[in-house]
Write a structure and sequence with these properties.
Layout (H helix, E strand, L loop, with lengths): L10 H16 L12 E3 L6 H11 L7 E3 L10 H14 L4 E3 L13
Parallel strand pairs: 1-2, 2-3
Helix pairs in contact: 1-3
């Protein structure tokens, strides 16, 4: 994803992704034990390029484990792309991708 290029999403596709992600999260207990080794990543803040660099450097999320500490959106140029990719990875690779909620995922912090 270069420069200001944005991905186009259809509303029904986003709805389906969110529905599947919700079902995936509801299957997971509140306290999750993440087996080692694990890559711990924090504060992506909509920086899709940074997320791609993390995957390129540390390995793809079906080969190595990731624990994301939240703050996926806000500030950066591609918050939708970041959250869509992370949710898709969580759905597809639930034993490799663990997502925690950061303060930027709270409604009162990130009002539209």
């Amino acid at each position: 994803m270069a420069g200001s290029t944005r991905m186009e999403y259809e509303l029904p596709d986003l709805h389906q992704l969110l529905t599947m992600a919700k079902a995936s999260f509801q299957k997971v207990p509140t306290l999750v034990e993440v087996p080692c080794p694990v890559n711990i990543c924090g504060d992506i803040h909509g920086q899709y390029g940074d997320l791609m660099r993390i995957f390129a450097s540390c390995g793809l999320p079906f080969k190595v484990r990731y624990l994301f500490l939240g703050d996926y959106v806000d500030r950066g140029r591609h918050p939708l792309e970041v959250i869509v990719l992370l949710l898709a990875c969580k759905i597809q690779f639930p034993k490799f991708v663990f997502l925690l909620r950061g303060n930027h995922e709270l409604f009162h912090i990130n009002k539209i």
